[in-house]
Design goal:
By secondary structure, this protein is mainly alpha-helical. The chain has two domains: 153 residues, Orthogonal Bundle (Helix Hairpins), CATH 1.10.287; 60 residues, no CATH class. The protein is 75% helix and 5% strand. It has a four-stranded mixed β-sheet. A hairpin with a 2-residue loop joins strand 1 and strand 2. Helix 1 runs antiparallel to helix 3 and helix 2 packs antiparallel against helix 3. The protein is rod-shaped and about 130 Å long.
Length: 243
């Protein structure tokens, strides 16, 4: 293989590794958001339950005050009943008492329904708190490991970028210029393999003479179809016969 091609393959390999690391690093914010989704969902569920419980408890307190007020009314009407002087006043007091008793019954029924509901809501909220706590733990671990991984990737990327910077000036200037030109068309894919006389990248066969020149490696040859810089891998040696 042409010696510059070997270096260009190494350069291309480094550029691919750098691109993959950059893509990983670019994905970090998205991955962090993905990790946080279950926590946000659990927190929202707990908040909704807490709001419902607060609301039902407020209703209960209002109900208790209403019951006390109705009981006061009842006491007053019952006293009035004792003091009536005619049947019209008696009927009126009886009517007020009946209305107040119906109100009282309705209010008490509401309180019982609220108590039943609160009995169900309280363990649900407790469960939601546990779910939130365990998801917060899990996401904390995942975020920490993501941060470690990102840190590692940034160091690796810095190393690779350093290697690229060191490698480029050691490559023959003409070969590097050709590589950079073809790279504009095929970023991180300017160098391609020739197998037999087939360019693997574009899947087109080149002339046998050109293929043989690629194998000789005296100069850098380009695919006639896609213009990639071609290299040929020597076929693997057949396994040695058993001794
Ligand atoms: Zn090609």
């Amino acid at each position: 293989m042409h010696p510059s091609l070997d270096q260009l393959r190494r350069l291309q390999d480094l550029e691919r590794q750098a691109a993959a690391l950059r893509a990983d690093i670019d994905m970090v914010d998205q991955r962090r958001r993905d990790i946080e989704v279950p926590v946000l969902e659990a927190r929202a569920a707990l908040e909704a339950l807490t709001r419902t419980i607060d609301d039902r408890q407020a209703q209960r307190r209002t109900g208790d005050r209403d019951v006390a007020a109705i009981q006061q009314r009842l006491t007053k009407y019952r006293q009035q009943l004792m003091a009536v002087t005619n049947s019209r006043e008696y009927d009126a007091a009886q009517h007020e008492i009946a209305t107040a008793e119906a109100d009282l019954k309705a209010r008490e029924d509401q309180t019982i329904a609220l108590l039943f509901e609160l009995d169900e809501l309280t363990p649900q909220a407790e469960h939601a708190r546990q779910v939130l706590a365990s998801r917060e733990d899990a996401s904390g671990v995942a975020l920490a490991s993501l941060a470690d991984e990102t840190q590692r990737h940034k160091l690796e990327l810095a190393n690779i970028e350093g290697s690229i910077t060191a490698l480029r000036p050691t490559i023959d200037a003409g070969a590097l210029a050709l590589y950079d030109r073809v790279s504009k068309r095929y970023p991180r894919g300017a160098v391609g393999e020739l197998r037999g006389d087939l360019c693997i990248a574009c899947n087109v066969r080149i002339r046998p003479m050109l293929a043989s020149a690629v194998r000789k490696g005296e100069q850098i040859m380009q695919c006639e179809n896609c213009t990639r810089l071609l290299y040929a891998v020597k076929p693997a040696a057949p396994p040695a016969p058993p001794a």
